[in-house]
Amino acid sequence: MAAPFFTTPFQPYVYQSPEDVVIPFQILGGEAQIVQIMLKPDEKVIARPGSICYMSGSMEMENVYQPENEAGIWQWLLGKTVSGVVVRNSGQSDGFVGIAAPSLARILPIDLAVLGGEILCQPDAFLCSVYDVKVSNAVNQRIRNIPDGVEVRLNNIPGVQGFLRQKLSGRGLAFVVAGGSAVQKNLEVGEVLSVDVSCIAAVSSTVDVKIQYNAPRRRAVFGGENQVTAVLTGPGIVFIQSLSFHRLAQRIARSVASPNMRDHPKFLLQIALFFFLAYVVIITSLILTDG
Length: 291
Description:
By secondary structure, the protein is an alpha+beta fold. It has a domain at 265-290. The chain has helices spanning 72-77, 148-154, 219-222, 245-256, 265-290; strands spanning 11-16, 22-28, 34-39, 44-47, 52-55, 59-65, 83-89, 95-100, 105-111, 118-121, 126-130, 133-137, 166-170, 173-179, 182-187, 192-196, 200-204, 208-213, 228-233, 236-241. The N and C termini lie far apart (87 Å). The relative contact order is 0.14. Keywords: Membrane, Transmembrane, Transmembrane helix. It comes from Kalanchoe fedtschenkoi. This is Altered inheritance of mitochondria protein 24, mitochondrial.
């Protein structure tokens, strides 16, 4: 069985697959974590590009195209990665590889065999995997139980784009990242939990997902936090993150960039008034000229 996700620093765990494949691993660190995976000869791990931190001398690394990624060519055109890094132990003795989280995040080891063989994650949540794990990134994958009109409006709200578009399936062990601190909620049958959409790291496929607006639609034009929440109904497991990468990047950008019009609504009104007066002057001059 895989470890619980709330691992303490330097605590070792052992993963055992349904076919009795045993793979030890450790999750190191407290904030920006590293997972160290032990590999026997000819064993391999598939990782996200750019995530390899260190490895023993017997390891061989290869960047390969992953044909299982749905709509891979469209992802490539839109700037998404469609490749993966395969690290294989080509030596005669045990080796190890260290894979780092891409930001200030926790690493969650998830045994897909325990969760029915499938889990839905936020985009780019996948970090690495061992044994049997398939990563699917469907560009047109719709949120379940969301009407078409509502889904279109969701795409215009920051932090909601690509909501749960990464699907992990198989019977192996997957490592996903959750920004900030992480909380696991086990929902019973019919139990309801409301979570901000940007705070959901992953949910099991048995969880029913619905979207709920917390403010009038017009507020989406002027921004704001916590506009949309996901109403999750059990049974199933929900992994919650306190600080998504999108929210972190947004806050950093706000702190270093010059103030925008949304932060100064008076400036926006002044611009609107300027164009209105200019329009009036132009129309008045045309009327006087024709007269």
